[in-house]
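[job 4471] stage=fold_predict status=RUNNING
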Amino acid sequence: MTVADPIDAGIPCMLMRGGTSKGAYFLASDVPIDPAERDDLLLRIMGSPDPTQIDGLGGAHPLTSKVAIVSTSTADGVDVDYLFLQIAVDRPVVADAQTCGNLLAGVGPFAVERALVAAGEGSTTVRIRLLNTGDIATAVFPSAAGRVEYDGGTRIDGVPGTAAGVEIELAAAPGKRLLPTGSPADALGGHRATLIDAGMPVVLLDAAELGVAGDESPAELEARSDLAAEVEELRLRAGPLMGLGDVAAQTVPKMILLSPPRSGGAIGTRAFIPARVHTSIGALMAASVAAAVRIPHTVAHGLAAAPSDADVTDVEHPGGTLPARVRVTRDADGAWHAASLSLRTARKIFDGRVFPRPRL
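[job 4471] inference complete, writing structure tokens
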């Protein structure tokens, strides 16, 4: 059933911080089924296209212009389905080729808030199918007396204060290749690159090859138009190699410039997402970096310090360090596989009705 455009009545919406991102969460039953109608509605809700997103919920940055759509799953052994949509800030574009590991942290709590899953006593476990990728995540978070507990002592770099921890284990969809080309490194536009997907398709490059030291702020890197143009050219080349096709209108693959660590971690990162530079790093981006660190002959392996733990890789980013727990294995055929476990936090910010602007 197509949902009418709710200019006057509004539609139910929950604004949540998930990890180091912020987004609008909706039940699938509250938005149009038709993708074109849905995308038009979401652009008007978020205030795009407009660099300030002044007339909508968006925060004028890709990290705060995100949407999660959640529904009860029909898959065996899965509780809910999660569709992630990246809403472009200054263009009328809604991208669905990627997922978001940060907003994923809020999907389980949102499912409880909307009575899709019953809260457990002490903790709640929610199995989540990521519709963008087919991967399956298991989220575990505190709950009591039928409610999600958001307050807690877990701190993640890039978010002020502390909150309750959300443990997320991610397993790849059957048949999915960790190294899409089968090689730990490929030639890409005159550069050596590692193309890898441990939950998020990323291209790993040696920052020094692009004239980047690795300690620059996101603003400093964004100010370099020559760098942005070269990174985007490489991204467009990488898309078909990763099986993603023409990625000009998509936000994957992410482009990550790697450098030796500076703050006691395993490796330094600066992530283009793809036009802006991430103020920290996404959880699944970090998982892909961490997996590459553990595979010989990748760009990451050559730049990284030895991880201090068998499964944990401390990934440095502009806002601090993200400990990425990734288990990497190799099968009898020589193919690499990875499973990740991350600790994030989430917080309910607002719950009510949102009113879209009448037209783009």
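[job 4471] summary: The first strand starts at residue 11 and ends at 18.
[job 4471] exit 0
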